[in-house]
RNA sequence: GCAGGGGUUGGGGAGUGGUUAAACCCACCUGUCUGUAAAACAGGCGCUUUAUGCUUCACAGGUUCGAAUCCUGUCCCCUGCACCA
């Protein structure tokens, strides 16, 4: 732990965190202490692990003495991506955004220092200024600096225009708003850097250009840096699991799920993730790299990665419960599971997994229950799987289709875990 | 608008009156193996009260003891031609 990086650029380079940056952004980050912002969409109640990349990026900037600003896009969130569908985009109410903002801030507090004297982090809602914009003023003072030809030539726009559905004016104007955000922060918070995913490059540059055009006397003062967007080796979006996004909120995504998500990283991506997410020492890293090459089956890297990330997000307590639940549920050592683990696992499972005592007492079969709770799609399927040995109850394979669930099968006197194969489990609570 | 071809179980694609719940390939699921991997092998892949049971082959009717297969109508897709520019 605690590598000594001379500066943030050295650190970012080692972590392979940077995809692109504007000219001289690197030398400025070494020479000066700057203020950098990164925007987050407040549409969800909680941040998800994809956001961990910018969060840790800001954290590392702060560690090197730079000042991070988090913009929660209350204003831009209302404009947003209409994502191809004809559906009306739900406008978030101010109260809702305010609520999300509070939630997001409390999550960020674990990662960023808001109290620090020299370079305290800030979290700001851009509706503060965007909602006050006057249309005429905006078109005169800001719109004038945008050349339609340039806007149209942006890849993101070009792709949409060539498609049949086209692009709405609302979405088209999004880049102006994000550029305006940057300008506003530049002028009012002395913020000269914007960070974002590589898909944001166009929007970031738009802001940089706007600032340059509006401040002709200052030479090229605004900069942008981007981090690469992660996809898994299967080409899936990073951070999505079978049952939805992995969030940072333990009430929504229990630590066990975070752990499992990273434990299932492939050998190709696991080392990349370790560099990106953890504070591993060079020496340990080299050792793990070697271990993964020599004996990948030991999954040492996966183990290290998932353990570390779970700890970063949920602390030691969360990490320990994730380890215990993993040993119980995935390695078959059911004995070590505590009552709280069963409750935890239940919390982490889908909705509608309640079973009434009455139903239980009337004698329900395993076959039936595995269909009722979506483990199998039909009685025929569950029968087949049971006969093939694919269904287990609390970790024990059941081969008899006549098996009836009784109160003796309950764990912690109220939880029932049925599994299909090794990886899909349903946790059912009896009340 | 005219002519021709076509719509089959997640995708591709056989099947032109009966033993066809429908070949085959892919995807997917389970088991064995394994590294909570990949590959390989085995089983499976409409539903159920497992029965010479039920519901399926674009949709609605009809012929027949019996239809995905034949007839009529409707909808949709592709390809030529025409019309309109």
Description:
With 431 residues, the protein is α/β, with parallel strands linked by helices. The protein folds into three domains: 8-227, HUPs (Rossmann fold); 240-347, Tyrosyl-Transfer RNA Synthetase, CATH 1.10.240.10; 354-430, Structural Genomics Hypothetical 15.5 Kd Protein In mrcA-pckA Intergenic Region, Chain A. 47% of the residues lie in helices and 12% in strands. The chain is built from 20 helices and 13 strands. A six-stranded mixed β-sheet has the order 1-6-5-2-3-4, sandwiched between helices. The chain has a five-stranded mixed β-sheet with strand order 9-13-12-10-11. A two-stranded antiparallel sheet has the order 7-8. α13 crosses α16 (300-331), α14 (267-277) runs antiparallel to α15 and α14 (267-277) crosses α16. The structure holds one RNA strand of 85 nucleotides.
Q: What's this, in brief?
A:
With 431 residues, the chain is α/β, with parallel strands linked by helices.
Order of strands side by side in the largest beta sheet? 1-6-5-2-3-4
> Globular, elongated, flat, extended or rod-shaped: what is the shape?
elongated
| Helix amount | 40-55%
Mean pLDDT: 86
**Helix segment count?**
20
The CATH level-2 architecture of the largest domain is identified as 3-Layer(aba) Sandwich
Q: Please tell me how large the radius of gyration is.
A: 25 Å
Unreliable runs: 81-89
CATH class of the largest domain: Alpha Beta
Beta-strand proportion = 5-15%
The biggest beta sheet reads: 6 strands, mixed
- Terminal CA distance reads 46 Å
Number of strands: 13
Provide the structure class: alpha/beta
CATH superfamily of the largest domain: HUPs
Q: How many structural domains can be distinguished in the coordinates?
A: 3
């Amino acid at each position: 732990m605690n590598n000594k990086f001379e500066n943030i650029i050295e650190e970012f380079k080692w972590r392979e965190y940077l995809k692109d940056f504007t000219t001289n952004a690197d030398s400025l980050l070494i020479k000066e202490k700057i203020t950098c912002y990164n925007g987050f969409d407040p549409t969800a109640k909680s941040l998800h692990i994809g956001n961990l990349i910018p969060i840790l990026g800001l954290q590392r900037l702060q560690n090197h003495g730079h000042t991070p600003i988090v913009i929660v896009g209350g204003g831009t969130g209302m404009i947003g991506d209409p994502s191809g569908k004809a559906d009306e985009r739900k406008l978030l109410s101010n109260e809702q955004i305010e609520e999300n903002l509070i939630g997001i801030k409390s999550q960020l507090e674990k990662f960023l220092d808001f109290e620090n004297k020299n370079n305290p982090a800030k979290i700001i809602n851009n509706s503060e200024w965007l909602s006050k914009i006057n249309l005429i003023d905006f078109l005169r003072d800001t719109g004038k600096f945008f050349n339609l030809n340039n806007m149209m030539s942006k890849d993101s726009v070009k792709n949409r225009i060539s498609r049949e559905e086209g692009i709405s004016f609302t979405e088209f104007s999004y880049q102006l708003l994000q550029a305006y955000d940057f300008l506003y922060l530049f002028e009012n918070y002395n913020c000269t850097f914007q960070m974002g995913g590589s898909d944001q490059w166009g929007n970031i540059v738009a802001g940089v250009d706007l600032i340059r055009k509006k401040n002709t006397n200052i030479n090229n003062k605004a900069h942008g840096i981007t981090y690469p967007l992660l996809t898994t080796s299967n080409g899936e979006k990073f951070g999505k699991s079978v049952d939805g996004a992995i969030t940072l909120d333990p009430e929504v995504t229990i630590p066990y799920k975070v752990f499992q998500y990273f434990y299932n990283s492939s050998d190709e991506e696991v080392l990349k993730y370790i560099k990106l997410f953890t504070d591993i020492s060079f020496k340990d890293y080299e050792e793990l790299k070697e271990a993964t090459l020599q004996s990948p089956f030991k999954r040492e890297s996966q183990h290290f990665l998932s353990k570390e990330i779970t700890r970063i997000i949920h602390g030691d307590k969360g990490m320990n419960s994730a380890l215990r639940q993993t040993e119980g549920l995935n390695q078959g050592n059911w004995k070590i599971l505590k009552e709280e683990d069963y409750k935890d696992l239940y919390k982490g499972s889908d909705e509608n997994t309640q079973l009434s005592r009455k139903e239980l007492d009337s004698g329900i079969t395993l076959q039936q229950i595995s269909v009722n709770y979506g483990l199998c799609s039909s009685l025929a399927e569950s029968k087949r799987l049971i006969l093939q040995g694919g269904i287990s109850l609390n970790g024990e394979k059941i081969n008899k289709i006549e098996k009836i669930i009784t109160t003796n099968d309950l764990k912690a006197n109220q939880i029932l875990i049925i599994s299909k194969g090794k990886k899909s489990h349903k946790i059912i609570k009896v009340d």
